[in-house]
Amino acid sequence: MTRDELIARTRQLIDEGERLGAEPSLGAMRLWLQLSDDLLSTAWGSMDRYHLAWLMVGKPKAIVRGRPMTRDEEADYVREVATQKTAALRMSLDAIERQGMPFVGESGGLGHGSSGEPAPREPEPGAPAPVDRAPDRAGLPPDPGLSDRLAEARRRSETHRDHGERRAPRPDKMQR
Predict the structure, then answer these.
(1) Among the ranges 59-63, 96-100, 128-132, which has the highest mean pLDDT value?
(2) Sign of dihedral through CA atoms 141, 144, 147, 153?
(3) Is residue 66 one of the residues assigned to a domain?
(4) Which of 35, 101, 152, 169 has the smallest C-beta neighbourhood within 10 Å, fewest atoms?
(5) What was the pLDDT predicted at 21?
(6) CA 73/CA 167 separation, integer angstroms
(7) Domain residues for 82?
């Protein structure tokens, strides 16, 4: 998948999410969720249950148990899910389009082409040349003391390794 294809498909899914908010349909939402999950998985990799639970996409705030949802409840649910997932798609689009982040599915590898670099952009006239940094460290100043602080934190944690162990025998009557 190319960057342009991913941008176009993400925009289509955002438009569909907005349409679902205006005209809720449970069946259309299910298909839209599957298509958006497939696209995000292709671009960024699959998400484990922890990430999906953290996003809370598709989890209604007021869960209806033991009975079918009314038309109003169903419409509210579809709007809520569409709003949440559309926000996730917008973040993905921003990462691809504005930030130029590399993604898994681009031309069969990470980033632009197979080199792992973001797609080249046309600089604005008179703008300084962009600084080439790894995507996960973009804009962060180097920290020369980080390795020293990390070593010290590891050393201190070793002194507390026995905190989970029992210190004195427990009387028989307290054991269950």
Answers:
(1) 96-100
(2) negative
(3) yes
(4) 169
(5) 92
(6) 56
(7) 3-108
Rounded to whole angstroms, the Cα distance separating 33 from 86 reads 10
Instruction: Tell me the per-residue pLDDT of 12-51, one tens digit each, with 9 for 90 and over.
Output: 999 999 999 999 998 999 999 989 988 888 888 776 655 5
Residue 117 DSSP symbol: B
**Cα distance between residue 43 and residue 2, in whole Å:** 10
Distance CA 65, CA 78 (A): 17
The answer to the question of residue 101 being in a domain is yes
Answer whether residue 160 is part of any domain. Answer: no
Q: What DSSP character marks residue 127?
A: P
CA distance 136 to 5: 23
Q: How many helices (H) and strands (E) does the chain have?
A: 5, 0
CB 21 within 8 A of CB 83: yes
- How many separate domains does the chain show? 1
* Secondary structure letter of residue 136 according to DSSP: G
CA distance 78 to 84: 10
